[in-house]
Amino acid sequence: MSCGEFSDVDCSAVLDRVQEYLHSEMDELDLTRIHEHLVDCGPCLSEYGLEQLVRELIHRSCTCTPAPEHLRMAIETRLVQLRSEGLGLPS
């Protein structure tokens, strides 16, 4: 999937790295490129918004101790699976 005229960054590349983006685990150039893509691409922004919402809900619900690493990885894996199944998001 690609936005063509809206961005030189491929949608699949953005969605593959959205977790890194959410956690600011990339260099400034990549952060900027992905941010600009999300601003211009409705489908990717919808996907990013969904993952950000899930992250915020988990954060609000887990105020005592951080989730175990295996749980976090299981959730992230499931989000990737749901995204690959389409989640009913526009393509």
Compose a concise summary of this entry.
The chain has helices at 11-16, 18-22, 28-40, 42-61, 69-84.
How would you explain this protein's 3D organization?
- It is a single chain.
- This protein has one domain (4-84).
- The termini are close together.
- With 91 residues, it is mainly alpha-helical.
- The chain has 5 helices and no strands.
- The model has no long low-confidence stretch (mean pLDDT 75).
- Helix 3 crosses helix 4 (42-61).
- It has helices at 11-16, 18-22, 28-40, 42-61, 69-84.
SSE inventory with pairings:
Blueprint: H1 11-16, H2 18-22, H3 28-40, H4 42-61, H5 69-84
Helix pairs in contact: 3-4
Query: How many structurally independent domains?
Result: 1
Number of H/I helices: 5
Mean pLDDT: 75
Strand content: under 5%
Number of strands: 0
Low-pLDDT residue intervals, each spanning 5 or more residues: none
Radius of gyration: 14 Å
What helical percentage do the residues reach?
55-70%
Category by helix and strand content: mainly alpha
Shape: globular
Q: Order of helices and strands, N to C?
A: HHHHH
Major beta-sheet overview: none
N-to-C span: 7 Å
Provide key terms for this protein.
single chain, 91 residues, mainly alpha, 5 helices, 0% strand, globular
